[in-house]
TrEMBL record:
Coiled-coil portions: none
Entry keyword set: DNA-binding, Transcription, Transcription regulation
Protein name: Helix-turn-helix transcriptional regulator
Domain called HTH arsR-type: residue spans: 1-101
A Pfam family reported for this protein in Swiss-Prot or TrEMBL: HTH_5
UniProt keyword annotation of Transcription regulation present: yes
Cited InterPro entries: ArsR-like_HTH, HTH_ArsR_DNA-bd_dom, HTH_MetalResp_TranReg, WH-like_DNA-bd_sf, WH_DNA-bd_sf
Naturally occurring in which organism (per UniProt): Amphritea atlantica
Length: 101
């Protein structure tokens, strides 16, 4: 992980909604128990939209930022997009951050 990548990841975490999304995705069964589709797919973008109370376009931008940083991955199933945390990347980020500080 380069310094530039680390900086981008830190920027991705600079918004509280993005941190909330990562937290919710850590325990999707707790925060998205009413999702119709299996949580093994991930969490449907529409469920995240509802949880934030923000517009679909705003949430999509936040999800795209987290995905570019590598913190989440997406999977398309039919017409729906599902999102999961990428815990391996998060752990690598935390280790690298620890080295830097």
């Amino acid at each position: 992980m380069s310094t530039a990548e680390l900086d981008e990841m830190i920027k991705a975490l600079s918004h509280p909604v993005r941190r909330d999304i990562l937290n919710w995705l850590k325990q999707p069964e707790l925060f998205f128990a009413d999702q119709q589709h299996p949580l093994s797919f991930g969490v449907c973008a529409g469920m995240i939209d509802q949880k934030t109370g923000l517009s679909q376009s705003t949430v999509s931008a936040h999800l795209a930022t987290l995905q570019r940083a590598g913190f989440i991955s997406s999977k398309k199933v039919g017409q729906w997009s599902f999102f999961k945390r990428n815990d391996a990347v998060i752990q690598t980020f935390l280790s690298r951050l620890h080295e830097q500080l």
